[in-house]
Amino acid sequence: MEMLSKLEELVLISVLKLKTEAYGTSIYTHIVGLTGQDATVSNVYFPLERLVRKGFLLAYQGEPTPKRGGMGKRYYRITKSGLEALQENRAVNLAAWRGVAALIKHAEV
Amino acid sequence: MRPPKLAKSLLKVLAWRKDKAYLGDVEEIYLLRVESAGGDSANRWYRREAFRSVPSFMLDSTRWSIIMFKNYLKTAVRLFTRDMGYSLLKLSGLAIGLACFVLLMMWVWDEVGWDRFHENARFIHRLESNSPAQPGPLIPHLKTNYPEIAAGVRFFSSSPLVVRSGDKVFDEDSFVLADPSVFDVFTIPFIAGNQATALAELNTVVLTESAAKKYFGKENPLGAVLTVENQFEVRVTGIVRNPPRNSDLQFAVLGEFRILSRFREGYETHWGNHEYYSYVRLAPGAEARSVIPKIARTVMDRDPGQSNPLTLVPLDRIHLYEDGAIRYVAIFGLVAVFILAIAACNFVNLTTAKSGVRAKEIAVRKVAGADRRQLIHQFLSESVLLSLGALLAALTAVALVLPSFAGVTGKDFTVRDLFEPKMMMFLVGTALAVGILSGAYPALLLSSFRPAGLLKGGSPGPGRFSGAARFRKILVVTQFAISTILMISTLVIYRQLVFVRDFNLGIQKENTVILQAKEPIQKSRETFVSRLTSRPGVVNATFVSSPPWNVLNYASGIEWEGMDPALKPGWAFVATDDRYLDTLGLTLVAGRNFPTTQSVEEIPYFIVNQKAVEVMKLKNPVGARFSLWGWNGTILGVVKDFHFRPLREDLDPLLIFVFPRIYSLVLVKIRPLNGNTPEVLAGIEDVWNEFVPGTPFSYEFLDTAYGRNYRAEQKMGREFRTFSFLGIFISCLGLIGLAAYVAERKRKEIGIRKVLGASLPDILGQINREFLGPILLSNLVAWPAAYWAMKAWLRGFAFRSDIPPWTFFASAAFALAIGVLTVSFQSFKAAREQPANSLKCE
Which residues sit opposite A60 in a β-bridge? Predict the structure, then answer.
């Protein structure tokens, strides 16, 4: 199986959630909203391209709009292997987190 | 609202290879921010976005370059091995060119770095008036009177001295005296002993490492005693490193200056004797420009014979400009660049000639989405890689031939000089530049091919191949032009060397032996000469103050009847005896020889040369009143002009008189019986041993000494010969490749011609014609350039040979013959091929 980085995982989930409206701006806004982190667009952009190369996402060209300085949108959509990877990673995450909440609660530092 | 300009262009540059959508996203988010948080906040965000993205984009681009570079490397290696012979041809041409460049540059480097290793080099100046030799009291005077002068040192280079250590005796020809402040001016690292006190005490010396080894072997030399000329003893107080090769300050034994009192009287007070090379170190902050006017009249005011003002010459200018080394530095630097240019032309030629082979690869890359920039990048990295490989091969070759190269340059370089860090950086830089420059044209050409035509197996686009062919021809013209220039120059230089060798100097320099006039010999001159001439084969002998091949003694304070007082002449002079004219075969055109060997102090008689008469404008020179240094006398005779300076210089007036006090050499004329010179020399050695027992017998022949005047020219001749042949050779390597390429392209044509009845010579002629034009054309460039350059070089000689037309024709014919031979040899195989084979395929 293919282990995803935290950022890749977040990006993949965002694309899944945003359905047909998944492109740079929306993904970036979504992730920033989710994490509250002050990320740059390139922080999102490079994982997106990496996921495209791995075959977890597919990208297609959208129409240019005046709001974007005349530049087109690049839409992303999750692929079948992307879904599988997400599934597998979720299982790992769940397994890893099982019982952690209780441990955190009673841990002595 | 618009995003900040600078940040926007930064982002554009960073993302130039990325999808445009990225920039669109940033823009959209920016506008959203403007709406939600206002312009200032959005601008701030935009700037942060741009600058914080730099690292990730850089990382990304590096990653991709590495991936692509791996691919280029693989392609390059495959290409190299696919046509091994051709690739090796390409590589070796460049490697030989680079090797020549390295060798020549090592020489140039050494010359340019002359005396620059001294820590205070930029503060050190030499005192000069009409010559660099200064009177003894000058340095102490300057030191006490001018605070700008931080330190000063005088040097005295003694004639060879006999130095004894225990039972070991040597004729030390590098015995130099200097003030203790020498270590304060120059950088002379000590191995043993104390620098501060080394030459402070009377009769002390420091030795170089090799001198210490010579005199004391493995014993500790510190505190040991050496006996000089069997007369006095000196104590060793220090061992210093051997002076570097590229320094004017050369010595084996460096003695404290007061030892001079054994050889010269009153040197501390006498302003009239200009004999000591003097250097000063200026205090930091003091400018030579402002010091010179203050000291200019120092010597003139104290010595009426000196009419030239004193000046300061910076140490780093002495070797290059004062001694004229810059001329050879420029010439050899130019030759180095020439050879490298030939090699680079080769490289370009061989790469573009094979471009047909790469056409498909380029087409596929283009179809797969490679843009032109990437292709150029690919070809440039290929050629840089190859040129670095060639540099590696060149360095290996140079390291191997370095010892034998010493014979060509006269410098004993070691591998350590080669791998000196600065030199290495320079060479790697050069290799990179050569790689980029010679890769540029092939890269531009190959990347311009149009994929559609190429993949169909056709033309790469209109005019692409023919344009490249024209360019290749221009490069062949360049290569052969440079080679021809070098060849013509070689011929002219050799002609001038022969001219100089066979030039009638007006002096009989054959069969003349030079001996040092050691003190015991000096004291009993007449007996020495009569003992010598009693030996079989010895004809005559004369004492002289300076050798006849290079009279460097100049006398000022000359006056003659009716002289224009404003003239203040300075003439070359020789102090000698009545046997001078006979021994050297000089003839008098008027007057007579010295009657006795009585000194000029007693009977002031003078003999002058014809040139001097011309300068004096005297109708009847013989018997005219003439005075030197206050001795009033007469001109006794006029000697026919002879050359007492290198032929680079014109004839000058010469003054001859009898003055035993300053004799330094004995010239002995011999007439070997039945050509048996060794027997005659053995006779001379016997007499030598009678007078100076225990002193090693050493001699030199006069014609050899004369030859030394032209050492630089001989070296240049040898180097030009070597490098013109290498230039031709590299050019021919290129021709081999091009001929192979032409033969291959014309394979079918040759087949058809043969079927139609063409003979082998016809075919060879056909291929040769391709190269004949460029080679002949190269003469058009080479002849005027070579003529102009050699004319300029010959102008450095007052007496010179001409530049006959045959040197041009011979060089051109040689280049052409070599070219035709190379091409014919290479295309022979293609021309011999059965038409059936070449025509049957497809």
Answer: A75
Mean pLDDT over B278-299 rounds to: 88
Q: Which residue has the higher pLDDT, B410 or B813?
A: B813
CB-CB under 8 Å, A41 with B20: no
What is d(CA B599, CA A8) in angstroms, rounded to the nearest whole number? 106
> Which of B22, B28, B32 is nearest residue A45 as measured by Cβ atoms?
B22
Q: pLDDT class for B456, splitting at 50, 70, 90?
A: low
Cβ(B495)–Cβ(B801) below 8 Å: yes
Find, among B125, B558, B568, B653, the residue nearest to B308 by Cα: B568
3-class DSSP state of B254: strand
**Distance (Å, rounded) from C-alpha B90 to C-alpha B94?**
7
Categorize the per-residue pLDDT at B338 as very low, low, confident or very high, splitting at 50, 70 and 90: confident
Token pair recorded at residue B610: 């014809």
CA–CA distance, B207 with B186 (Å, rounded to integer): 16
Residue-wise pLDDT tens digits, A24-42: 889 999 998 888 888 888 8
Contact call for residues B728 and B822 (beta carbons, < 8 A): no
Q: Do A72 and B48 touch (CB under 8 A)?
A: no
Domain A6-105, CATH number (from 2.60.120.620, 3.90.960.10, 1.10.10.10, 1.10.10.60): 1.10.10.10
Q: Which of A42, A58, A67 has the most B C-beta neighbours within 10 Å, making it the best mutation to test the interface with B?
A: A42
DSSP letters for B438-470: HHHHHHHHHHT--HHHHHTTS-SSTTHHHHHHH
Which amino acid would we find at residue A7? L
How far is A94 from chain B, CA to nearest CA, in Å? Answer: 31
Q: What is the mean pLDDT of chain A?
A: 87
Q: What is the DSSP letter of B321?
A: I
Distances (CA, A) of B95 to B81, B254, B341, B679: 18, 45, 12, 52
Q: Where are the beta strands (DSSP E) in B110-203?
A: 124-128, 133-135, 149-157, 161-165, 168-172, 175-178, 190-193
Q: Distance, in angstroms, between B424 CA and closest chain A CA?
A: 40
CB contact under 8 A, B53 and A46: no
ipTM of this model? 0.82
Parallel, antiparallel or unpaired: strands B124-128 and B311-314: antiparallel
pLDDT at A83: 92
pLDDT, one tens digit per residue, over B534-577 is 878 788 888 888 877 777 677 777 777 777 776 767 788 888 88
Name the token pair of B232. Answer: 């006095």
pTM > 0.95: yes or no: no
- What letter represents residue B42's amino acid? A
Our CA-based measurement puts residue B51 at a distance from the nearest CA of chain A, in whole angstroms, of 10
Element (H, E) at A59: strand A57-64
Q: What's the pLDDT score for residue B120? A: 87
Give yes or no for A50 touching B (CB within 8 A).
no
Closest chain A residue to B50, measured at CA = A40
As a whole number of Å, the end-to-end CA separation of chain A is 35
Q: Identify any residues that bridge with B176 across adjacent strands, giving them in sequence order.
A: B157, B254
Q: Name which residue leads in pLDDT, B306 or B460.
A: B306
pLDDT, mean of residues B659-685: 80
Within 8 A of B32 by CB-CB distance, chain A residues are: 25, 29
Partner-chain residue, chosen from B29, B31, B56, that has the shortest CB–CB distance to A46: B56
pLDDT at B153: 92
Q: Which two tokens stand for residue B153?
A: 């040192």
For B690-721, the pLDDT digits (tens) are 877 777 778 888 888 777 777 777 777 777 77
CB contact at 8 A, B569 and B556: yes
- Tell me the C-alpha distance between A103 and B7, whole Å: 47
β pairing state of B654-658 and A72-78: unpaired
